[in-house]
């Protein structure tokens, strides 16, 4: 196993650059850190290119399992010191294992083909990394078909987004798209486009959410743009009998997705 201990090493500088969106896009790479995320990536056959293992932590059971799996998959293994791990990542207490992963290249057309009762979550200009990661995680939990992230949203491969997905990034297709191009095409296929609005006349509990559906959630600050709203088939509100004026975008998407799950489970009973 190769060993690197200097933060001035050219490869270390390249890995550290992945903390910035510009270089993630240029290189088509991002990083994940921690045993749980790395294990999940390996189990899911994510396109992991290199594993960085902190010296002195290789004897733990989880790390040994990761090394065994990586060897079986032919993934490059490099031993580094804690200084290199800290330089490459952006957490204060790194766990001693980092994976360099290639960007996914899911094709939306392939995802849509032959789908019945498809359930997509489409997101317009979501800015908070924690919200975006939580939305992807929730979509994974309900068994959604995929997530569409519109331009203007926080970068999918932002380290905070990746951590917030808790591995769900590796479980379902996530597409970075231009919503104004994609949503009309989905609508032409007979897929219902549903958005949220506090002014909507009907609640999320009043409409049929079975069949092929795309839920469109807008930005935390401004909601859905007028351009996107004009494309929708239906707008719904989430009842709020309390005093709060609005819900967090991630919470709103969870309420809607789980109502869809409830209806679909009931229809199968």
Automatic annotation (TrEMBL):
The keyword Transferase applies. InterPro entries: Alpha/beta_knot_MTases, MRM3-like_sub_bind, Ribosomal_eL30-like_sf, rRNA_Methyltransferase, SpoU_MeTrfase, SpoU_subst-bd, tRNA_m1G_MTases_N. Transmembrane segments: none annotated. Gene3D superfamilies: 3.30.1330.30, 3.40.1280.10. Keywords: Methyltransferase, Transferase. The keyword Methyltransferase applies. Residues 31-107 form the RNA 2-O ribose methyltransferase substrate binding domain. One of its GO terms (cellular component) is cytoplasm. One of its GO terms (molecular function) is RNA binding. It comes from the Bacteria. Pfam families: MRM3-like_sub_bind (PF22435), SpoU_methylase (PF00588). GO terms for biological process: methylation; RNA processing. Belongs to the class IV-like SAM-binding methyltransferase superfamily. RNA methyltransferase TrmH family. This is RNA methyltransferase. It comes from Collibacillus ludicampi.
